[in-house]
Amino acid sequence: MAVLAVFLAGIFILLAIYCATDPLGHGPMTKFPGFEVYHAELPAWSELPTVRDSENRLQRAELRFLNQIQGPESIAFDPLGRGPYTGVADGRVLFWNGESWSDFAYTSPNRSEICNPKASPLSYLENEHICGRPLGLRFSKKTGDLYIADAYFGLLKVGPEGGLATPLTWEAEGIPFRFTNDLDIDEEGNIYFTDSSYNYQRRNFIQLAFTAEPSGRLLKYNPTTNETMVLLQDLQFPNGVSMSKDGSFIVFAELSRARFSIQIWSLSIILFLLIFSNFPPQCRLFRYWLKGEKAGKSEVFAVLPGIPDNVRANEEGDFWVAIHCRVSMYAYFLGKNPSLSKLLLKLPIPAKFHFLMLVGGRLHAVIAKYSPDGKLLDLLEDQQGKVVKAVSEVEEKDGKLWIGSVLMPFIAVYPLN
């Protein structure tokens, strides 16, 4: 019995040393030894959206271009209605001519064989900073130029003929962009865009989400003066951007302020909720006023049921919000208890495991539609992730939703009628 006790004690000590030192580098923050975890604001329970799509309508979507494209984050159609155009994981912007895909544009001047097609979107992460990663795409209706938010090369522009995109801006107030994410254009040609972090790059997006670091910014680029202005700073993973129909405000998504509150009484309940619960922590849409008496001010536009990505307005002025998935109670502890979060992130638990806990064990896409005053108009889901597992952007065109995802090898198309 004594021998067994000594043996178990030895195993416990070795396990403790392993967890404390992580000699094999399995922990998600191994490459960021000085990382900090920040508090996320939490709303009252009464603010939680409770709407569900009981019909799982996204399961009716058609999967197009399966395995022909990898990680189509953003989808755009040019002023003549041609397309779609989409940015993919190997750094190219592709164009669908009605019969096949062709190369349209590049964001990196350093492309080589390491950028050649690979098996999955995640296979490109290691070389994204070399090959480029086009995220947000927007066409100028006046000039036909395509504006690109590339995660590593900043804000760029390419003409209607395509080719190597021209950099427009890559820093603001002396601080370089590290994670340029999405953009939109106003009637005067000004570009509004997000830099999700000036510390973490896109290939470390999971770490940025875990830490909720407030290093993101909302910015404006003036093509006439070539000036870049910081509109808002200290944001936690700002993401999608979309102009209102009348041009009076922009809407942008903020990811890491996962929001909800609930009373917890015992460790057993905490563990149960961590493992089995699927309460939806929230992120928010914000409205930043460009015109009127509130110009220059921001306010909460809508509280979301999950992790948002891009935002796109339709012709009526309503906003489609791509929501990767609803997230589990695990996200509550990452946001509510920074000290506990930091401890967990130091353990030799791979980032993939943390991410699965964050999303409730499986990917499952959600799409929400909001009116110009922030009212929820519709919500579509694939709760089991059978067809549309994840979504990064929703573009409405000709009665259909074109659905892209940075994680998937296809574009899903959902008929609204």
TrEMBL record:
GO cellular component: endomembrane system; vacuole
Boundaries of every Strictosidine synthase conserved region domain copy: 181-260
Subcellular compartments: Vacuole
GO molecular function, one term: hydrolase activity
InterPro entries, A to Z: 6-blade_b-propeller_TolB-like, Strictosidine_synth_cons-reg
Residues making up the signal peptide according to the UniProt record: 1-21
Gene: SS3
Broad class of where this protein is predominantly found: other
Protein origin, superkingdom: Eukaryota
Record keywords: Glycoprotein, Signal, Vacuole
rRNA processing in keyword set: no
Stated name of the protein: Strictosidine synthase 3
Family of this protein: Belongs to the strictosidine synthase family.
Coiled coil stretches, renumbered: none
Organism lineage: Eukaryota, Viridiplantae, Streptophyta, Embryophyta, Tracheophyta
Organism: Apostasia shenzhenica
